[in-house]
Specification:
five-stranded mixed beta sheet, elongated, two-stranded antiparallel sheet, 9 strands, alpha+beta, 44% helix
Length: 278
């Protein structure tokens, strides 16, 4: 019993840290020995990760809302308009009635049309306005119409498609309305693209000429007819990424939604709210 007392005293007096010696005799680090800078760095990285996660969750929620909106529009079906038709005569005297739906279905430029989009509708309405001013109640011949446009955005293939449709001959050949397409003079079309990396509504104009008289009319779109969202998403950097196929899904969705709002304005606004003479 007397021999055990010194051993017990040693165990009581030796600090607890002294019992943590490993086989090699080295002391294991305690929490107090972790460098403060390393601790702060880990905390900062965690906080940054939490912030990034919150931003990603917000972007995901916004994308889900846009997807829901676009899906509902798709389910509603193609855009229907009540726009008046355009009447022209072919070289044999046939009267051709053209609607905006006809233009949307026409594939004069393969791979460059995308159904119901605003730029073809804009060209269609500009043409209708010009014909009413230059020909009045007369029905113009295709060959008497000269179309020029400047400052077009690089993606405005709808303008080209609409103009080609107006300047082509669609002649019915039987009772079922089956016809053929015959290309007329292409020098009556002068469509110029703006700076490929920038776009300005102010630079967009349509000029129509009645070749038989030389009378002309030039119109441009009013700023109030262009949604602010559209001008926000066609900044040079976004245009570059869209053109190169590098835009994010979110930016692409924003661009499509803005164009749909633009299309609604073009289809519904009266002529005097849509265009102004230059």
């Amino acid at each position: 019993m007397r021999k055990l007392i010194p051993i017990l005293l040693i165990l009581v007096l030796v600090p607890a840290s002294g019992l943590t010696m490993g086989c090699g005799g080295e002391e294991e680090p305690s929490p107090a020995m972790v460098p403060q800078t390393e601790y702060d760095q880990v905390v900062a990285e965690r906080d940054e990760a939490e912030q990034n996660l919150a931003e990603l969750e917000s972007e995901l929620s916004a994308a889900d809302e846009r997807i829901t909106t676009l899906r509902s529009r798709i389910e509603e079906g193609p855009v229907k308009s009540a726009l008046p038709t355009i009447s022209v005569q072919d070289e044999e005297g046939w009267i051709v009635e053209m609607s905006i739906e006809d233009v949307w279905e026409f594939k004069g430029i393969p791979g460059m049309t995308d159904g119901e989009e605003p730029w073809s509708a804009l060209a269609f309405r500009a043409t209708h306005l010009a014909i009413s001013e230059l020909w009045g109640a007369e029905v113009p011949t295709r060959e008497d119409i000269q179309i020029a446009a400047t400052g077009l955005p690089w993606y405005s293939f709808g303008v080209m498609n609409c103009s080609h449709y107006i300047k082509k001959l669609i002649r019915p050949v039987d009772a079922n309305g089956v016809g053929e397409i015959k290309t007329l003079r292409s020098d009556d079309l002068d469509l110029k693209i703006a700076d490929p990396w920038a776009f300005s509504i102010d630079g967009l104009t349509f000029t129509f000429t009645r070749k038989s008289t030389g009378a002309k009319v030039t119109v441009g779109i009013k700023d109030a007819a262009v949604p602010e969202k559209l001008m926000e998403v066609i900044d040079p950097e976004t245009i570059r990424k869209l053109r190169l196929g590098e835009a994010t899904e979110e930016k692409t969705a924003e661009f499509q939604a803005a164009e749909e709002e633009f299309l609604t304005n073009i289809l519904e606004l009266p002529q005097d709210k849509l265009f102004e003479e230059k």
